[in-house]
Amino acid sequence: MIRGATVRTRISNHVTTLSRPNDRPGNDEIDALIIDALRHRVGKDERAAKPHDWYTATVYALRDKVIDRWMESTRRTYADGAKRVYYLSLEFLIGRLLRDAVNNLDLTGALERALRTHGFELAELEELEPDAALGNGGLGRLAACFMESLASLDIPAYGYGIRYVNGMFRQRIDEGWQVELPETWLSHGNPWEFDRRESAYRIGFGGEVISDGDGVEWHPAEEVEASAVDTPVVGWRGARVNTLRLWTANALDPIKLDAFNAGDHVGALEGEARAASLVRVLYPADSHKAGQELRLRQEYFFSAASIQDIIRRHMQFHEDIRTLPDKAAIQLNDTHPAVAVAEIIRLLVDEHGLEFDEALDITRRTVGYTNHTLLPEALESWPLPLFERLLPRHMQIIYALNSRVLRDARKAGMDDPAVAAISLIDEGGDRRVRMANLAFTGAHSVNGVAALHTELMKQTVFHDLHTLYPEKINNKTNGVTPRRWLMQCNPGLTGVIRDAIGDGFMDDTTQLEKLNKLAGDAALQERIAEVKRANKVALAGHIKELTGIRVDPDAMFDVQIKRIHEYKRQLLNLIETVALYDQIRSHPEKDWVPRVKIFGGKAAPSYHNAKLIIKLANDIARRINSDPSVSGLLKVVFVPNYNVTLAERIIPASDLSEQISTAGMEASGTGNMKFALNGALTIGTLDGANIEIKDRVGDENIVIFGMTAEEVAEKRANGYNPRAVIEGSPELRQAVEGIAGGVFSPDDKDRYKDLMGGLYDSDWFMVAADFDAYAAAQRDVDARWRDPAGWRKAAIHNIANVGWFSSDRTISEYARDIWGVL
């Protein structure tokens, strides 16, 4: 295991980078840079400039400092001949970049003072920056944390993805329903990005494969151009600036003038429209054939462009393609870029003349694969006819790879069911290409993202592949960057910690452990409580602005913010909220703890039940928030359009972190780490990284409930009667019957009939099975809240003991164990 000292040593080599007098600009220099950018790049005089002009000028001024370090980092990599890491991800949820760059370059104070001379606060200008719509949930946010840690640890790296024009969607709530709108984050340009027109590649689709006796040539029927757009990623204390390279798509023939002049204005632009569709939306709905085709086209488009770019760079500086594994480490973030395995082999065989087996060996020594899910529907597979029509040469390569894998399985004495499970082609029913199996067999390393998840990978989805290749699977528990998720989003808490234990934790988060011996100190508890309340007051104001709902900052802020999915069990939380509502009304004489239940998250556009859960949350909120009998004791809020910026507001203000997924179904989670780092107590199941958080913060400083993954599997296998469970639990039965009967949907009494009926019929996600344990755990939380000193002590122990969950530690483990760059 990598200890904190290893990460600290890596960072401390660059701690003094910004301390050189000529490197850290003073107020006058910063001011001059901003004024120069305002006049000569924005084109505005100070007296005529509007706030958005000052924001853009500030970014340009700061960007110049970033560029100097970016170029220096690149020159150093070339001079050293260093091995590079290439991180391929369909998502990079980077959030706003201004605060990130200012903080990591240690220029916050100087920039604030310079802007105040012109009547602006840095925080005000930061609010003008849109969230980059490049991701959806934990997968994309993890990729962003990893990119920042790679730069902070001075590891040369590129991130590769797609420059989505409209992202996933902007969520609006209309009468309680989710409405999807385009996210127009690029409507006014993006001052952080750089167009790299020289880095452009042709990406083919369809066509035919022709053999001329000397080799094989793929003749695509359609080609688009992938063109690079770069964004700098600044490491902590300016240790290094790495590159996030995103691909945009262009038609090779943007307009057919003859057709246009003939009056076919739509048909004349068809090629441009098809190219634009590749970079328009993240995760197009794949519930229909057109959506499936677009999704596969997107995945190949960005994977192929990235691999071509990697190999082009390697040949430019190292010339021998056989040394690729020595100079490049390619990490596939989930199955979305899995087709890169076939693309690398294609280029090595078809373009560089290698034999297939040598190409496969080079590919395997270069590629690593991170798995993020055990859900079968998330382990991507594509209909074989679709795959073969779009990527005929890659289908040949996959068949060739599969023949070698299946021969290995037969030689190992594996039986027919095991061989069928290992195959890259699913032969059951409609034949499909299994992308997870492709990634697994084409990589030298396959890692899970939490200890439990990794063990379950070996036992479930990759059981037979693990038997055949037992050396591949390893664990790399996720982490989060403490720069964004403590120092930037919670400066008040950061200041209190610095006063208490010094600055060392800012370079080595394991030094937060020094807080353990101070956890019982009443003065420290009070200071941290004051910071928490100030954060809650600020969030309460923002909630009022967004939703019109007033919430009490002295109530417990009980928060569940994450992608809406049945396995994450927002429904369990909502049913318990209804049960609590019923109990408060039935027993008003009891000393109830005031709570504000805060929900946030997006549902996939085609995920009916998830969208219905959002509507239910809003229906419950409307009923409870208007009921005077629980006024001051219970409020429910669904915050629309959950994103990184909103998370940065909510997490520092949270008291209770809801991490209640069905055990065995959450790979890791990173929200659980962010909440604990900001002093929230966790209520959760023994799932994902919750287990490792529990081990580090101590059983007494976390609230665990419910079945284990083994118990869930056993109940599913041996028969489970959820109807009996519901009928045997009075609180649960009353809540479920109330929801199903239309108490919260008087305009449509049957709205939730089927949703609740699913609990009676199967309850696959064990909502009913875990309800009583969850309700009891919530009453335990109430008891803890009534002891302010005990709660504050537990919160400090959480802050103190989750420093290990830094993405610096995670990246150090990847770098040492998988990439060979440390």
Automatic annotation (TrEMBL):
Source species, domain of life: Bacteria
UniProt cross-references to CDD domains, sorted A to Z: GT35_Glycogen_Phosphorylase (cd04300)
Keyword Phosphoprotein: yes
Functional description taken from the UniProt entry: Allosteric enzyme that catalyzes the rate-limiting step in glycogen catabolism, the phosphorolytic cleavage of glycogen to produce glucose-1-phosphate, and plays a central role in maintaining cellular and organismal glucose homeostasis. Phosphorylase is an important allosteric enzyme in carbohydrate metabolism. Enzymes from different sources differ in their regulatory mechanisms and in their natural substrates. However, all known phosphorylases share catalytic and structural properties.
NCBIfam families noted in UniProt: P_ylase
EC number in record: 2.4.1.1
Enzyme class (EC, first level): transferase
GO annotation, cellular component aspect: cytoplasm
Matching PANTHER family: GLYCOGEN PHOSPHORYLASE, GLYCOGEN PHOSPHORYLASE, LIVER FORM
Species whose genome carries this gene: Aurantiacibacter rhizosphaerae
InterPro entries xrefs: Glycg_phsphrylas (IPR011833), Glyco_trans_35 (IPR000811), Pyridoxal_P_attach_site (IPR035090)
Modified-residue entries (N6-(pyridoxal phosphate)lysine), positions: K674
Keywords: Carbohydrate metabolism, Glycogen metabolism, Glycosyltransferase, Phosphoprotein, Pyridoxal phosphate, Transferase
Cofactor(s) listed in the protein's UniProt record: pyridoxal 5'-phosphate
Reactions the enzyme catalyzes: [(1->4)-alpha-D-glucosyl](n) + phosphate = [(1->4)-alpha-D-glucosyl](n-1) + alpha-D-glucose 1-phosphate
Similarity field: Belongs to the glycogen phosphorylase family.
Single GO term (MF): pyridoxal phosphate binding
Protein known as: Alpha-1,4 glucan phosphorylase
Any matching Pfam family: Phosphorylase
Coiled coil: none
GO biological-process terms attached to the record: glycogen catabolic process
Gene: glgP
